[in-house]
Specification:
With about 250 residues, this protein is an alpha/beta fold. The protein has one domain: Rossmann fold (3-Layer(aba) Sandwich). Helix content is about 45%, strand content about 10%. The protein is built from eight helices and five strands; from the N terminus they run αβαβαβααβαβαα. It has a five-stranded parallel β-sheet with strand order 3-2-1-4-5, sandwiched between helices. β4, α6 and β5 form a beta-alpha-beta unit. It starts with a helix and ends in a 14-residue tail after the last helix. The N terminus is likely disordered.
């Protein structure tokens, strides 16, 4: 009896010591499209939190390929909790070359200084609404999104002011008002994101950035060219294959 009592006491002490030395990580939700930026963002979230990943299909041209990338990245990063959601609204609304087959995806050199036709109207608001809702259910206090302003296509829902405004909505519209949308990459150049991803061990080989093809990256769209330039500037080979060498 005494031996058993000593064992129970020692077990309690060990458990207390364990809880002091290895505290459980806080929960966070990361939006993971399967692209390069969201992959690095997911690697950051998985490093610092008990991360859950959400992927939203919205009728985009590369929907199936992006979903495969999402699942593979989650497996590589050991993200267990996954949510795949289909948004029918964005495809029905159209107005983007990514969701409307009658609008061609332009070559990178044809993209001007305005907002390109690959912009999906107010897309990130749809994504964030899902991610914040899930974070509220899971008890997560952070929602990660890999939005980038420099070296991007100029989408208005990738601006810092947009996320500042969205956080005000989240604070006013959630139960506790303590969930924060975080954008750790938003001020980084693409080459800096590549370097950070390499430091984190982000699985770039599993990612997909091309706007138009699912078999090989086309090498012609704005997304392919921006990605290629970033890897080239970082002095490393992009691990995915291209149907055509991007014209940089």
């Amino acid at each position: 009896m005494h031996a058993l009592g000593f064992f129970n006491q020692q077990s309690t002490i060990n458990n207390q010591q364990l809880s002091l030395t290895t505290p459980s990580k806080s929960r966070a939700v990361v939006l993971l499209s399967g692209g390069m930026d969201s992959c690095v963002c997911a690697a950051l979230a998985a490093r610092d939190h008990d991360a859950a990943a959400v992927h939203i299909s919205y009728g985009q041209r590369t929907e199936e390929r992006e979903r495969r990338s999402f699942l593979a990245i989650c497996e590589r990063l050991n993200i267990r909790d996954k949510l795949v959601v289909r948004n029918e609204a964005l495809g029905a609304i159209g107005g983007s070359a990514l969701t409307d087959g009658s609008i061609a995806v332009p070559r990178a050199e044809a993209v001007g200084h305005g907002i390109p036709v690959t912009y999906v109207p107010f897309r990130n608001a749809h994504f964030l609404a899902v991610a914040v809702s899930w974070a509220e259910v899971l008890g997560g206090k952070k929602v990660y999104i890999g939005a980038v302003e420099p070296d991007s296509s100029g989408y208005p829902d990738c601006r810092p002011s947009y996320y500042s405004a969205f956080n005000s909505v989240v604070k006013a519209g959630t139960k506790e008002g303590d969930i924060e949308v975080v954008t750790p990459l938003i001020a980084m150049r693409k080459v800096e994101i590549v370097r950070l991803g390499l430091e984190l061990g982000a699985p770039f080989d599993l990612t997909w950035s091309c706007y138009s093809r699912e078999d090989q990256a086309c090498g012609l769209c704005d997304s392919c060219v921006l990605r290629w330039r970033a890897f080239e500037a970082a002095g490393v080979r992009d691990p995915i294959s291209y149907a055509a060498r991007p014209n940089c």
